[in-house]
Amino acid sequence: MNFSAGQKIISIVMLLILAVDFRVLYAASSVSRVLVYAGEDAYSDPFIGEVAEDFSEILSSWGYKVVEPAKALDLAKYHDAGKVSRSSEPTRMLVRAKEDYFEFRYADAIAGLMQAEKFIHERDDGILRFGDILLDAKISKAVIEKARGKMAEARKSIEDALRINPLLQLSEEGYPPSMIALFEDVRTSFVSGSGSIEVDSKPPAVDIYVNGVLHGQTPMRISPLPDGKYFLELRGARYDPVVKEVNLINGASVEVKAKLKWAKGGGPLPQSEVDEFELARDLARESKSDKVIILRGSGGAKNRALYARMFDSRLGSSHRPIMLKSMGEDDAKFDSLARLAKEISAQLREDPLADPSKVTDPKGRGDPMILINRKKKFYLTPWFWGAAGLVIAGAVAGGIAASMGSSGDGSGRVNVRFR
Predict the structure, then answer these.
(1) What distance in Å separates the CA atoms of residue 80 and residue 283, rounded to the nearest whole number?
(2) Within 10 A of 216 (CB to CB), how many other CB atoms are there?
(3) Which ranges of 216-330 would DSSP assign to H, the alpha helix?
(4) First to last CA, the chain
(5) Which residues contact 230 (CB under 8 A, 6 or more apart)?
(6) Mind listing the pLDDT tens digit for each residue in 175-195?
(7) Is 309 helix (H, G, I), strand (E, B) or coil?
(8) Residues 274, 277, 279, 283: what is their CA dihedral angle, to the nearest 10 degrees?
(9) Is there a cis peptide before residue 224, judged by omega within 30 degrees of 0?
(10) What three-state secondary structure class fits 204?
(11) Containing H/E element for 207?
């Protein structure tokens, strides 16, 4: 059967459309839940709520399980998601240190991590407020010291991390076997004990933080724990936190029961006081979402821009933000949203661990596991200079051969004499 040129073109276009649709469906099947949050700060126009609803419908039609923007907004308000008290100077120090490591400035990275640790240790409430950041810094430091070949320092940093959270485990998905083997070797020799802390509260289902690290919700048994001192904090939305100091001796089991008091004057924080990374983390935890997409809008009625940033709850990092400079109206607006949805779907198909510096936003805090997977710039790798050396050597040899064998008629000849 013969096809005309027009029929061939139409067939190719249809195949491309089907290919795109299959890629979208594949991405949808690999992500269990996506939350869409409409930022409503002073810089956003009222249209952002409507845009978020339309955007959610598009993602849903492509097979994604989407947490509706209205529910996301309710979660944010009720849980005071993203409050700035968790975001602070040590967080910024940690971010800068990781950026230095990605650029292979090892000494600067270590100095930045030590500065963050010093800041936390000098505060009376440092471990309670910044325990998770301190833990992050210790593991990041171990990764960097191992990369530098300083194994004693790496082991010391792992020991420090296990003092903060004796139940810490490294993901096999995120860390290479050599790092996991080192961690397990230190953990086996350093952590031992059979103690436990039984935690219950009124009301139930409040967050349990041990040394500033989230462990779960009440009621809960935390074990096995080595002997030592632990700082326990219970946090519930709209309740004043309760702090307890627990000492475990001889593998004892300690019960902690607390009654939280309703906080007076509590209320949702204004968006201008919300940290976007912490907001995404809180929303992901409360909604059990894999990805959180935050939308913000700006501009006038005729020139509306849309900003979108997607966060990965597993890695604690964000993908690079997407900006649509002009949304348009009616059909143009729908086309813009469809284009944004395709870009977001493309990001959902990306594996942040494959090349973090390319996929993730360098300003994101990120889990220490993404440090392991950073890639050197191609011109810094040994194979690049090896290949370059071969090319240069070949060029030099060719030049010498050409000069030795050149003649007036343009032909070349090399005389080789064997002895």
Answers:
(1) 10
(2) 14
(3) 276-287
(4) 71
(5) 197, 210, 211, 245, 246, 247, 248
(6) 889 999 999 999 998 888 889
(7) strand
(8) 180
(9) yes
(10) coil
(11) strand 207-210
Contacts for 314 with CB less than 8 Å, ≥ 6 apart: 290, 367
Dihedral sign, Cα of residue 176, residue 178, residue 181, residue 187: negative
Residues 6+ apart with CB under 8 A from 281: 82, 311, 313, 316
| pLDDT score recorded for residue 243 | 94
Query: For 316-357, how does the pLDDT look when each residue is reduced to its tens digit (9 = 90+)?
Result: 777 878 877 776 676 677 788 888 888 888 888 777 666 666
User: What are the per-10-residue average pLDDT scores of the chain (419 residues)?
Assistant: 51 45 45 76 58 84 81 64 56 85 89 93 89 92 94 96 93 84 93 91 90 91 93 86 93 93 59 63 81 76 73 77 73 78 82 64 53 53 56 59 51 42
Q: Classify residue 14 by burial, with Cβ atoms within 10 Å: 0-12, 13-18, 19+.
A: exposed
Nearest Cα residue to 166 out of 208, 113, 222, 114: 222
User: Rounded distance, CA 287 to CA 36, Å?
Assistant: 11
* CATH level 3 topology of 31-79+273-360: Rossmann fold (3.40.50)
**What is the pTM assigned to this prediction?**
0.59
Q: Which tokens go with 317? A: 């990092």
Q: Per this entry, what is the length of the chain?
A: 419
Q: Are strands 66-67 and 322-324 parallel, antiparallel or unpaired?
A: unpaired
Fold of domain 192-266: Immunoglobulin-like (2.60.40)
In sequence order, what DSSP letters do the residues of 97-155 get, joined into one string? HHHHHHTT-HHHHHHHHHHHHHHHHTSTTHHHHHHHHHHHHHHHHHHHHHHTT-HHHHH
- Give the number of other Cβ atoms within 10 Å of residue 290's Cβ: 18
> Per-domain residue ranges for the chain?
31-79+273-360, 192-266
**Cα–Cα dist 120/113, whole Å:** 11
**Pairing state of beta strands 34-38 and 291-298?**
parallel
Type of residue numbered 406:
S
